[in-house]
TrEMBL record:
Pfam families: DUF7885
InterPro entries listed in its UniProt record: F-box-like_dom_sf, F-box_LRR-repeat, FBXL15_LRR, Leu-rich_rpt_Cys-con_subtyp, LRR_dom_sf
Ranges of compositional bias, category Pro residues: 83-95
Name used for this protein in its record: F-box/LRR-repeat protein 16 isoform X1
Gene3D superfamilies linked: Ribonuclease Inhibitor (3.80.10.10)
Extent of Basic and acidic residues compositional bias: 24-35
Compositionally biased residues, Polar residues: 61-73
Gene: FBXL16
């Protein structure tokens, strides 16, 4: 009997017994079974995946808006070739048609053709097959791939398998991150009801250099020191928030953890100034104290006497006066470059005099919330701290346009000026005296890159015209400025180098304006 000639490109399917349904012809694609074995939702030939370099294929977006990626193996000739289907696979023998064991699935299968990820999608040769490691566990590939994920995503990926965990638990993937541990997370409850301190081996493997402990006591800190392998020398930064640490606990912590050079105490109301005198070490270069009710002038005396190498000091203390700022000595004058005085309500222009004479090398100064500082205090800053690159005058309601004139005339290196950084509309405490005249002074500052004008309620469209000459601006905040109109804001498209523009709570910021910015400022992030 003569057989009908077979069309080119079609290959007959082998006859198999014991399986319902029948096989049909398929053009250059894996066999597709009609009936129960057919893939749902595929009426025609599947679209061949694009094979870019390194064999990475991006699949279509899922309904939740997140795309997925699949790793396949392409031939070398396909690296620089336009998108094309992979070579047809060879016919598998009947013995390979059975379901694959779990070990084979662990090696990875090509989603489209059912091919192992460790081999090329080409016909077998007569020679011996060369074993290759699966791409899904190739450490060289994974070391490059995992850089594209966030810290939260890395925590999830580390639970996939031991190979991924081994690659991800390298310190390079966690540099600069600080784990936050609450007191209740430090213990496991045993069946007997007793508490057991959790294992911190995973943190040690990743080599974290800093920790933030929330709500801990003296006993919790001692347990942490005993159970974390790197606590003695490897931890460089410690942050304690809303904790009940006492003078004794603070002393033990800094005595045992000899590597700590950066210390933050926030909302810790059980230690006193005597605890600072007994525990602070000369190795500390960065100190932040906020919302600690027992901190007053004597605490500043301890800091100035015991920390000669202090480079950065952030202080939020409602009871610190001008007298405390006179305690800084010449030793801090050479080393300290950053000083933040936050909500120090008792500090006046006299305190500013002490600061500029004791710390002449400051490059960053914040007087945020120092509500008694006036234009004269800003004039002292501008005349004596010529190295300043960042100045924060937010929440200083006595500041006027005259202060901005002093800043523009003397601070030629200034890169960041903050006239309001916060979002709560307490206008009686803000820089409400800044007008268009003050912006005209700032327009002469060629080095200014970041300007925050949040809730400066007297700024109008005329003042914005002065800012259009500031080609060095990269960040501009006009949030909460009620007098700015759509017409005035539209002129900001002349700042083509702008990278971030904040317009929240701005009545003149309309949907049409945001669309206009998206067309004419494509590289700028506009915050609505």
């Amino acid at each position: 009997m003569s057989q009908e000639p077979r069309p080119r490109g079609l290959t007959p399917a082998p006859q198999r017994a014991g399986i319902q349904g029948e096989w049909r012809w398929q053009k250059e694609a894996p066999w597709e079974r009609v009936g129960k074995m057919s893939s749902p939702g595929m009426d025609g030939d599947p679209k061949p995946p694009c094979l870019p370099r390194n064999g990475l294929v991006k699949l279509p977006s899922q309904p939740n808006g997140m795309g997925t990626a699949s790793i396949t193996k392409g031939t070398p000739a396909a690296k620089n070739r336009p998108c094309q289907p992979p070579p047809p696979p060879s016919l598998p023998p009947p013995s390979l048609a059975a379901p694959l064991p779990r070990a084979a699935l662990a090696g990875g299968l090509c989603p489209s053709a059912g091919l192992p990820l460790c081999g090329p999608a080409s016909a077998p040769t007569s020679g011996p097959l060369v074993e290759r490691p699966p791409l899904a566990t190739d450490e060289k590939i994974l070391n490059g791939l995992f850089w594209y994920f966030s810290a939260c995503e890395k925590c999830v990926l580390a639970q996939v398998c031991k190979a991924w965990r081994r690659v991800l638990y390298q310190p390079k993937f966690w540099a600069g991150l600080t784990p936050v541990l609450h007191a209740k997370e430090l213990y496991n409850i045993l069946p007997s009801g007793e508490k057991e301190f959790v294992s911190l081996q995973g943190f040690a493997a990743r080599g974290f250099e800093g920790f933030c402990l929330v709500g801990v006591s003296d006993l919790d800190i001692c347990e942490f020191i005993d159970n974390y392998a790197l606590s003695k020398k490897g931890v460089k930064a410690m942050s304690l928030k809303r904790s009940t640490i006492t003078d004794a606990g603070l002393e033990v912590m800094l005595e045992q953890m000899q590597g700590v050079v950066r210390l933050e105490l926030s909302g810790c109301n059980d230690f006193t100034e005597a605890g600072l005198w007994s525990s602070l070490s000369a190795r500390i270069t960065s100190l932040s104290v906020s919302d600690c009710i027992n901190v007053a002038d004597d605490a500043i005396a301890a800091i100035s006497q015991l920390l000669p190498n202090l480079a950065e000091l952030s202080l939020q203390a409602y009871h610190v006066t001008d007298t405390a700022l006179a305690y800084f000595t010449a030793r801090q004058g050479h080393s300290t470059h950053t000083l933040r005085l936050l909500s120090c309500w008792e500090i006046t222009n006299h305190g500013v005099v002490n600061v500029v004479h004791s710390l002449p090398n400051l490059t960053a100064l914040s007087l945020s919330g120092c509500s008694k500082v006036t234009d004269d205090g800003v004039e002292l800053v501008a005349e004596n701290l010529r190295k300043l690159r960042s100045l924060d005058l937010s929440w200083c309601p006595r500041i006027t346009d005259m202060a901005l004139e002093y800043v523009a005339c003397d601070l030629h290196r200034l890169e960041e000026l903050v006239l309001d950084r916060w979002a709560a509309p307490l206008l009686h405490r803000r820089c409400v005296r800044i007008t268009d005249t003050g912006l005209s002074y700032l327009s002469t500052m060629s080095s200014l890159r970041s300007l925050y004008l949040r809730w400066c309620c007297q700024v109008q469209d005329f003042g914005l015209k002065h800012l259009l000459a500031m080609r060095s601006l990269r960040l501009l905040s006009l949030a909460g400025c009620p007098l700015l109109t759509t017409t005035g804001l539209s002129g900001l498209v002349q700042l083509q180098e702008l990278e971030e523009l904040e317009l929240t709570n701005c009545p003149g910021a309309t949907p049409e304006l945001f669309k206009y910015f998206s067309q004419h400022l494509p590289r700028c992030l506009v915050i609505e």
